[in-house]
Amino acid sequence: MTATIKDVAKMAGVSISTVSRVINDSKPVSPESRRKVLKAIDELQYEPNEIARSLVTKKSNIIGVIVNDIGKSYVSQVVRGIEEVGRMYNYDILLSSTYGDSEAETKYVKLLQQKQVEGIIIISEIHNAELMEYLEAMRLPFVYLNRFYIIEKLPTVSISNKKGAIKMTNHLVEQGHKKIAYISFDKDNGRNVELYKIEGYSEVMEGAGLNPMIINLPNTSPESYIDIMSKIIDKIKNNEITAIFAHSDESAIKIINLLYDEGIKVPEDVSVVGFSDIDMASIYRPRLTSVKEPFYDYGAVSARRLLKEISGEGTDEEKIYLPEYVIERETVKKLD
Amino acid sequence: MTATIKDVAKMAGVSISTVSRVINDSKPVSPESRRKVLKAIDELQYEPNEIARSLVTKKSNIIGVIVNDIGKSYVSQVVRGIEEVGRMYNYDILLSSTYGDSEAETKYVKLLQQKQVEGIIIISEIHNAELMEYLEAMRLPFVYLNRFYIIEKLPTVSISNKKGAIKMTNHLVEQGHKKIAYISFDKDNGRNVELYKIEGYSEVMEGAGLNPMIINLPNTSPESYIDIMSKIIDKIKNNEITAIFAHSDESAIKIINLLYDEGIKVPEDVSVVGFSDIDMASIYRPRLTSVKEPFYDYGAVSARRLLKEISGEGTDEEKIYLPEYVIERETVKKLD
DNA sequence: CTGTTAGCGCATTCAG
DNA sequence: CTGAATGCGCTAACAG
Fold first, then answer.
1. Which residues of B touch A139 (CB under 8 A)?
2. Optimal mutation site among B76, B98, B251, B278, interface A, most CBs of chain A within 10 A
């Protein structure tokens, strides 16, 4: 049996209140008593029971984090950010993974509430209307992160996808590219941030008097994917495309690999850029030029914001924008 | 104020014991009472307070996970495994990151104990004698994971590094390679698993009547690294090395990149293999041949083992070995 | 400065 | 089948 505050009090020959006082440094205690208590604590290897403490103080010092999949690189970066600032304020993290199951998302929110977390950060990749409603109705502080969907009325933090696309397209144009294709994918609804990226890309193209060329790469069947890719390859060979702006780094790398298999070199034969700057982007060869999404900061800022709200300092704007910028690496060739 | 069991009891017109009974399904309750209680629970949106419950049952249903850095790919894979089996048994995960600070490791063990976790899984990359002692003295169930150091008396799970090295070296030999270099690094002490890998490599080489060639790549200064690498490059050019067995995938990829910059192609000019099969190994081009370390399973098995011990089913062996095998991909050329 | 008391929200005897 | 009472380990008045 592990020692309790009572055992300490008995051994020290004082009341449990006194013990509590020295533990929490909450009220003055005579040096003499303090010494005795400390000695007893040491001898008994006493460690306060946080559960009991939480029950009375109503502070668990825990924030719940619900993620899509902790195994995904960017997710773990975000969690790293959360963890690090949480730690600064003495908060621990209770982690749950949903693997894209929307029922699990709502279920875990409730579970975490039962565990008395003081706030929740959700990293999702799906559009879950039910969850959003529930969150709004909830009195518990929370931050909702979603790279893919447009979040309207929920507290969140992200970059401006539109500005990111603008900066990247500008970069390509500045490097002398005129035939720039934007590779998108089948969007399942009108809430996808893809809309913003396309908007940014199109604006720049049109502003520069260039023709936007938006190509949807379906992720439904491998056949249709190959089909469209072969058309793209033809255009590259015919010099109808000199640069490809892929909607994501994953997509960009997949494309470069395919091109590589076809004997098309990047950036010599065609430039390719991505979006998000995932880990892989800098490790892959050639190193991928991309728009940086500061995942660690997503987590850190979310945690700060949440903790601020928990401490009752009120919350500011719903949506916090972080700076986005182009990371120039090796997959863009300067044209002249 | 969120509803408590008392509120439910009052609204349902029964005692809190009855409410508790229907919540936990612990003892028979008349259909009539049950109905009233359920109704009250629904109306009040009552959710039991797990903290209070834990205090009396002495079961937190939480396991603590202390990691080196959740942002590292393999770590997040392990955590994913832990999370998934934890979930099956209704256990949540309390996460802490140490970033290699040994004091933090012991500190977090204590913190988690205070939070009344029922067991702890530690993913470390350093040798921390103090922690090991503390863990052994502790009555709390735990599993200690460390990819780099030899764990002797602590419950752990891993592959046999020696067998892995044997299998890989065999593979290289089978592919017709005779001049195989093993790339190691400066080991800080004799407890590194690197010893096992070298042992396995050497045994196979000697068994095949081949000369072991062990090269230490220092990670101290970039200059000395470059220095040794240039010697390796010379040997490759002189055909004194046809295959490189790197101690890790990270190292293998770094080497391939360097070779690439020198105009040496893998696997055409030289074969290169790694160890661990990190995510990158299959995404990188050429795809890296490697020895698989089943990170997800490390987590899943650790969690199973821990939960088993928590449930009092006793624990079996200290050390659990998982199968290791060679994943053949594109960086090995068959020689004839 | 210190001890006594109440109570956090709940599960669990123990009578009935 | 049900309710009253006890206590999990601790903090926070409160009175001294």
1. 2
2. B76
Kindly determine whether residue A285 and residue B283, on different chains, have CB atoms separated by under 8 Å: no
Same domain (yes/no): B180, B231: yes
Whether residue B138 lies inside any domain: the answer is yes
The average pLDDT across B292-315 equals 92
Residues B265-294 have a mean pLDDT of: 94
Nucleotide closest in space to B58 (CA vs C1'): D8
Please state, in angstroms and rounded to a whole number, the distance separating the CA atoms of residues A152 and A267.
Answer: 38
Range of the domain at B209: 161-292
For chain A, first and last CA: distance in Å?
78
**Distance (Å, whole) CA B192 – CA B316:** 25
Please indicate whether, in this complex, the C-beta atoms of A70 and B50 are within 8 angstroms of each other. no
Verify if strand C has an atom below 7 Å from the CB of A57.
no
For the segment A18-35, what is each residue's pLDDT rounded down to a tens digit?
999 999 988 788 888 899
Nearest-nucleotide field for A37 (CA, C1'): C2
Q: What are the tokens at A56?
A: 């009375």
Classify residue A330: in a domain, yes or no: no
| B59 Cβ nearer than 7 Å to chain C strand | no
| A279 vs B: CB within 8 A | yes
Clarify whether residues A303 and A224 are in a common domain.
no
Given B2, B47, B77, which is nearest A71 (Cβ)? B77
Structure-token pair, residue B30: 């008349």
Report the CATH number at residue A307.
Answer: 3.40.50.2300
Residue whose tokens read 């009108």: A190
| Pair B246, B178 in one domain | yes
Question: How confident is the model at residue A218, as a pLDDT?
Answer: 82
Q: Which of A52, A60, A285 sits opposite B257 (nearest CB)?
A: A285
3-state DSSP assignment of residue A274: coil
Specify whether the CB–CB gap between A118 and A86 falls below 8 A.
no
Q: What distances in angstroms separate CA B174 from CA A194, A225, B161, B208, one per listed residue?
A: 49, 38, 20, 10
Which amino acid makes up residue B92? D
Q: Which of A93, A283, A285 sits opposite B94 (nearest CB)?
A: A93
Residue B48 approaches strand C within 7 Å at CB: yes
pLDDT band at residue A324 using 50, 70 and 90 as cut-offs:
very high
- CA separation for the pair A309, B227 (Å, rounded): 54
